[in-house]
Amino acid sequence: MPSLFIALAAINGFIAVGLGAFAAHGLKSRLPEDLLAIFQTGVQYQMYHALALFGVGLLAMQLSDSALLRASGWLFVVGIVIFSGSLYVLSLSGIRWLGAITPIGGVAFLTGWALLAFAMLAGRTL
């Protein structure tokens, strides 16, 4: 499991850098400022949580039996897909109702962070 989370971190970091460059160079002249800012928010949160996944992978090397830690990592993945993904689609399509989906990804992020804290406080007991 540790290597899977580290691989997912690397993949998401790669995608975030690529999409950030795409936004800066390919979308800057094509999207209105408000939609470009939404796209960039998706990139930022994807990168933050790619780094969080990296941390989960490293911690999983020490606490491989922690269900809380595994759940935290998977919630970060779900959050990236729903939060960042909905922002990417919203900004590129202009379909504003997609913003209603974004908070679901935010809740996944928050829950992932809470479970990460609980996993570290609980140690190997869970």
From TrEMBL:
Q: To which species is this protein native?
A: marine sediment metagenome
The UniProt keyword set, sorted, is: Membrane, Transmembrane, Transmembrane helix
Q: Which PANTHER family match?
A: TRANSMEMBRANE PROTEIN 256 (PTHR43461:SF1)
Concerning Pfam families, the annotation shows: DUF423 (PF04241)
One GO CC term on file: plasma membrane
Location in the cell reads: Membrane
Membrane-topology annotation of the record: Multi-pass membrane protein
Q: Which residues form a coiled coil?
A: none
Descriptive protein name: Membrane protein containing DUF423
Please indicate if the UniProt record lists ATP-binding as a keyword.
no
InterPro entries for the chain: DUF423
> What are the transmembrane regions?
47-64, 71-91, 97-122
